[in-house]
Queue: 3 jobs
Job 1
Amino acid sequence: MSVSVDDEDLLAVIKEALPPGRARHLRPEATLRQVGIDSLCLVLIVGRFLERYPVPVEPLQHQLGSVRTIGELLDLGRGARATWMQGNGHG
C-alpha cells in the first residue's frame, strides 16, 4: 500500500492491530473484514489514534459507523490528526 510519509504512523497503528499475516494485504480499497478487522479491533485502532492525537471522541464516534475500508479508516485517523494539530497551533 502506498501512503504518504504523513500517514505512515496511522498505517503502523492499523498494522499493529491486525491478525498475524494480514498486514501485507493492506490496500485502501480493502474492506476491514477482508483484512481481519472486527469491531473489537476497530475500537482498539481508534483508541490508539486517540492516544496519539487526543481529540474529542464524539466526532469520531459519528464517523465510525460508516468506516468500511482501510482508506476510510485512514481518513478517520487523518481527521483526528488534523483536529489535534489545529488545536495545538500546528495547522
Job 2
Amino acid sequence: MNEDRTVIDILERVRELRRRKRCPNCDAVVSVRGFRGEYRWECVDCDALGIGYPSRSAALDAIQRRQG
C-alpha cells in the first residue's frame, strides 16, 4: 500500500472503479467477459450489450463514453 494514500483516497478509487462497471442505460451492474481476444459487456438487469472490444479496458471505456 502506498504511504501517501489515505483510507478516504482508497475508498474514492474503489467507488470510481465500481461506477465504471455500471450500465449506461439503467445503472445496474455490468459484466465484462472475453472470448478469443474479443471482449463484450452485458448488463445483468436490462440486457443491454456492447460487443467487439479488443480489451477489457476498451469495453469499460466504451461504457464510460456512453454514460456521458
Job 3
Amino acid sequence: MRTKQSIPKEVSLILHRQRKRLSELNALDKWTEPEFEEIIHCSTEWDIQKQSWIFPLPAIEKLAFDARTPDKQARSLQMIAKYMNLDSTK
C-alpha cells in the first residue's frame, strides 16, 4: 500500500491487528503454508519516510532461521537476508 500521506490512526489500527495476529501465530508449534504467509504479512512495518509497508531485515532473519518456517521459504529468506546484509555493507 502506498499513500502520499500516512494516516496515523489507520496505520496504528493495522499495526495493532498485525501484532495481535502475530502473537496468536507465534503460539503455534508448527506453521502451515497459509499461516506462514500470514506471518510474513504481519511482520511488515510502516516506514514513515517511505510512506509504505516494508519487510525489515531483522524480521527476515528471524523467520529465516525459525524451525517453524517451511524449508523452501526458509532457504529463500536466508538468501534474501544474505544479500540484504551484503547490500547494507556497501
